Amino acid sequence: PVIQPAAGSEPARSSAMNLYWGDLHSHGEVGYAKGSLERAYDIARSHLDCFCFTGHSQWHDMPRMPQDKHLKWVRGFEVMKNNWDKVKRLAGEYHQPGKFVPFIGYEWHSSSYGDVCIIFPGDKAELAYINGIQGFQKFARDAGAILIPHHPGYQEGWRGQNWSVLDTGVSPVVEIFSEHGNAESDLGPYRYIRHSMGGRYTQNTLQWLWEQGVKVGVVASTDDHLGYPGAYGEGLVAVHAESLSRRSILEAIRARRTYGVSADRIELDFRLNGHWMGESIPAAASRNIRVKVKGKDTLDRIEVLRNNRVIHRNHPIDCRVGPSSWNKPILCRIEFGWGPWGDLNMARICDWNFAVTVEGGRIVSATPCFQAGPFDEQRRNRLTKVDDTRCEVTSYTSRMQAYEERATNSIILKIQGAPSARLAIAMTEPTRMDFTKSLAHLVKSSDVKFTGPFTSESVLLPRITFAENYESEFEFTDRRKTDKTDWYYARVVQSNGSLAWSSPIW
Predict the structure, then answer these.
(1) Residue by residue, what is the 3-state secondary structure of 61-105?
(2) Across residues 298-303, what is the average pLDDT?
(3) Model confidence pTM above 0.70
C-alpha cells in the first residue's frame, strides 16, 4: 500500500501509459562542476526513474574571456574527454530496466547556435567533436539520438537558441525550465538572472517559437552543477511512457508526450479530442479538452491556452472544504532548515535525523523535495524508511549554495486519516526533540518548532492540503473554425510557486 517516490510512483490515467520522472541534464566533476559520477548515480536512482549525466564536452566558438576565465571550460572539456569511457561504463552498470534507466549523453556548447544536450538511445555512444550545428544534427540522426536545446531564452549569439537552424526531426522537445529559469515567456515568473548571458529575449522564448508555427514539445531538467540529479526547484521532466525502458522513454520524448515542472512533481494529463499532449491532429470545429491534475500543494489555478492566450481557468483553491474532505488522503509537508542568515557569518551545515509516525492514520506515499546545496560528497538526503505509519529521514541543510537562497529541504506525506490522526515527530539531530500535532490542528494553523536558541534551525509544519485543493479534473469544448493551425497547452500554478507546462497539441 505504500508508494515510494520515483519508479513511476503513480500511473497516468491511461492503462497504456505510466508517468515517469527524470533529469536529462546534470553535471559533476567530470567536466567543470562538482561531485563524482558515483555520487550522482547514487542520488539519481534514489528518487528518479530516468537520468542522463551530460558532461560539458566542447565549445567550438568560445570567446576569450577576461582573466583567462575561458580556461575553466577548456580544462573541463579535457576532464570529460579523459573520462568518457567511465561515463559510458557507469551508465551501463546502473541500468536496471523497470527500476532505473540512465542514458549516455553530453552537452555541446555554441555561442552562435545555442547549447544542446545529446541523448543516445543505447550503449553505443561517441564523444564527437563537431563545429557546426547542422553537422551535429546529422551526427545525432545517424546515431538514433536526440538533441535537446537548453536555456533557449538567451539572445542569439549569447548561447541562446538560433531558431533558424532548429531541426524538430532530431529535436522534438526544448527545455522550458532549468536552474537558468523559465523560457515559456519573457513575461512569466522565474526570470533568467543567475548567469552572464543576460535576461530573457522575447524572440527566443517557447511562445514566440510556437507563434512561428514550429511544432516542438517541452521538457525540464536541472542543469545542476553540484552533482545533484533531480535537485528540487531546478526542474524535472515528466514522461508519459508505456514502460520504464530506454526505448519507451525515448519514444515518448520523440512523440512529445512530455511536460516540465519547476519544483513539485505535479501530475498532469492533458488531452484534446482524446489525443495526448504533443500530438498533431486534423482540424475539427469542436475540440473537447480534458485536464486532470494532482498537485503536491494547493493548486492556485490551472490554465488552458490556445495560441498562447488563456481561454479557460480552473481555480481549485476556491473549492469548499467540509467533513467529506477527509474521505480522501490529505497532503502534509514537513519543511526543515533555515538557520543563521548570511550577514551573521555563521555558515554551517546542519545534519538532520528524524522519524515521523502517523498515529491513527496511514501513509499513502512519501515524496522527497531535496535541493542540491550545499555540495557534500559524503552526505546524503534520504527517506531511509517508509511504511504504512512511519517515515524516517536523513538530510542536511545550509544557506551555503542554497538555490534561490531557499535554505530548506522538505518531504511531502500523503496521509489517509481523520482529524484526530496525529503526526508524532521524534528527532535525534540536530537536537533531541519530540513533538506531536493533530491533523485537526494543522487544518487551522501551521506550526513551527526551533531546534535551539536564536539563529538555530527550525521545522515548519504548514497547514495541510485537502484533495479538493490539490487535485482537479475538468473538461470543456472549444468550438472554432479557422484555416490556420491552432495549438493548445496547459499550465499549472501552485500556491507555493511550483509550475507545470504541458507540451502543446496542434
Answers:
(1) CCCCCHHHCCHHHHHHHHHHHHCHHHHHHHHHHCCECCCEEEEEE
(2) 98
(3) yes
